[in-house]
Design a protein that fits this description.
The protein is α/β, with parallel strands linked by helices and 453 residues long. It contains 17 helices and 20 strands.
Amino acid sequence: MELKDQKVLVIGAGISGFAAAKIAKHMGAEVTLSDAKQEQDIKYDFSELRAAGIRLMFGPQAAELLDGVQLILVSPAVPLRIPILKEAVARGIRVMSEVELAYRLAKAPFCAVTGTNGKTTTVTLLGLLLETAYPEVGVGGNIGIPLSEEALRIGPDGCIAAEISSYQMEATEEFHPHVSAILNVTPDHIVRHGDMGTYQAMKERVFAQETQDDYLVLNYDDEHTRSMAERAHCQVCFFSRRQELEEGACLEGDTLVIRWKGTTHRLCTVNELGIKGGHNVENALAAAAAAFFAGAKAEDMRKVLMAFKGVEHRIEYVRDVHGVPYYNDSKATNTDSAIKALETFPDHIILIAGGDDKLTDLTEFMGLVKERVDELILVGDAAKRFHEAAVKAGLSEDQIHAAGYSMEKAVETAHRLAKAPQVVLLSPACASFDMYDGFEQRGRDFKRIVNGL
């Protein structure tokens, strides 16, 4: 990809935008980074970009920004419907995501994972599994590491595990992984995409360029992902936790196996698997299948599957306080993810939930709360709607506690109420932006408070 002497505009001052701007500048482009926010409202330090000679523009994005621009690199958080990007398309200017930039720069093949829930755990595990087969492995994308930086770092003998969000796929055309996996599709990000059909279509872009030389790993147990096989032009491998498949990744009794081309490759048992819970069996099957098609051998993957204990903020054990274990599941930013956390524990849960409300239906989530939760502690913007839904599901007013916008109060309330054999679980079923910069900050604040009890 040639950028020398081209005029490049980067829209969005986030992690991906920073990486794209630096790479474009390094490749000889004249680079401007623009963000609709004012500089003082953005948490990042721009001194490195200024020192590199990158022009910075903050505030309203007028059409004049596009004058002379040959390429726009857009951050995932920026929707394509904003006026400046609509004007760019009208002028015939190429708009490209940082993921697309990474693909065009890469010499190594990609293994790309997307889905509503489970992406980070699956991609982290996938990266470790790929290390059994490649001398160099990159892990990046929506996981918080710019994919373009990993693409430049990893040579032709390596492989790249990429966590891909629906946001990142909006501005892609040629992105072509060798192996892709779609874990599940449940209602999320509808505000961004407009409807469920568009959201699913963005997920399906991850395999749109794949051919018969490539592989697509799909969740057989999810009706949305199962039907994607009909639109794939590559080899499809299903994975299932609920059905024993004649071909695919599944459970044979209590053993994780990959059945492919008449051969059964045995991995480990459910009890031996380092990550616990039914959803993590699915994540492990998907990661193992993707690594298998990328060249990893079952016997080499076994030790990794047994040793891997999960990622931060996803049903992460924090500590015991007076015999009560505390778990950080801050990454549960939607109801489906929170349901998976509730299913991990049989009952006697003290649940901290709420935050920046995505306005998804709460019926199934609150039905499970009624079954398994002893006390419900609510925080943030969603508290009122969650309270009403909890009462409708059958919780009593005495079981529901308001903590306002204070994680301190939420944890203190849980600490006051909790008695063994109960567990305290932060699984918000909401985004975090009403109180925090992201779910990571929310989870670390929760852990800080718990560790201070």
